[in-house]
Amino acid sequence: MIARPFGIPVFISPYWFLVAAVLVVLYSNSGALPGTVQGTVPRYLVAIAFVVLLYASVLLHELSHSLVAVGLKLPVRRILLWPLGGFSEIEQEPPTPGREFLVSAAGPAMSLALAGLGIGLNVLTSPHGIPDVVLDRFILANVVVGVFNLLPGLPLDGGRLLRAGLWKLTGRKGQSAVLAAWAGRIIALAVVGAVLTQSQTVFSLDDGYGIWLIAIAVFMWMSAGQALRSARVRERLPALQARALARRAIPIPSNLPLAEAIRRADLAQARALVVVDHEAKPIAIVNEGAVLATPEQRRPWIDAGSLARTLESDMVLSADLSGMDLIEAVRRAPASEYLLVEPSGQVYGVLAAADLDHAFAGS
Question: What pLDDT band is residue 30 in, cutting at 50, 70 and 90?
Fold first, then answer.
């Protein structure tokens, strides 16, 4: 962690320093610097100033996203600066299209505001020489960051704005995310096409900027793919109902032989065994994997309770859980089985993690 502005941790990837150094070398030796900057040392100083200002602008861009999210009661885990830019890890997605629009628009708005500030300073101070060059590059960097992020395709901010708009119009967040993700892939292909077909321009491969743009396009393609997968996951979530996945369970004492416990379960057409104490209170769940691994000839001589896992508080779940609430409850307490109870506290059944995984993968 390098800083904690407004209580938001900021981390920097170790690869950032390597890529920043490469950018300094490329920029100082490219034709992008005007002829007014003469000499090796001045050119490197201007290049270093440009790279530092560029990433400082990216940090302010991401900080704007994060501060708006915090203002909307959306928890922010951290800001990560990495070689291709920055990323705000907002732990909870905005619950409405309006809030998504506000969070997404904050970054480009900050970048364009910084560009406007640079233009104002340029007009007021009329700098010359190296200060003029650095200020011009600062303005250009923020214009590029702001405008590029407004392109309407995920994972760019413009893609999130597009998703928010489509979500507002259609009421279908998942389908809106799919469309915005495909728009992002189209933009990625367009960037690669521009680099490969243009020459003697800023898109050219000759001075290294084209390679940089291709790297960004590859990242966009991969991130758009992740957005598509996430959209498919969200579409499956409503089908995950704890009640529908529950196994019927029977109560047994801890010292009951495993063979007898299995016989009772078969008679009751149950697929789970819940160990109860002398007051009939559930205290453990017999592990299915351990039962299957026990040879049949040994089952009469083994207590069922010896193959059970003691129930912890977070292994007792409401039978009414569904969707993401169910996924999060299971994620908080990794186990092979969970006890499902009614709001009254009565046992409803047992949820096997394997059943949940199968339903999620096949739904």
Answer: low
